[in-house]
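In the current project phase, we have settled on a layout for protein records. A sample record is reproduced below.
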Amino acid sequence: MGYYICSLFMVVVTKSKEAWDIYSRKQSKLKHEVLIASKKPEHSYVKLNVDGSAKGQLGTATAGGIIRDGHSNWILGFTYKIGISFFLTCFILE
């Protein structure tokens, strides 16, 4: 029984350290240019584009979007402040 408890304790300590190492590591700042394009919708249709972003694994997250008509004219735009969240939240909301 003592060996089992000691072994279980070591697993918990190891997994906790792995999680802490991942959580506490500084995020590398990746900056690169991304060229984007969008096709116009057909004449009587509108197009909705959405995106989201988060600052770090646990940070400020936002989402937003735009609706355009068949001539690429802006109809409506919106933003949504998610707040402090994990980075996956903004992608789940898309």
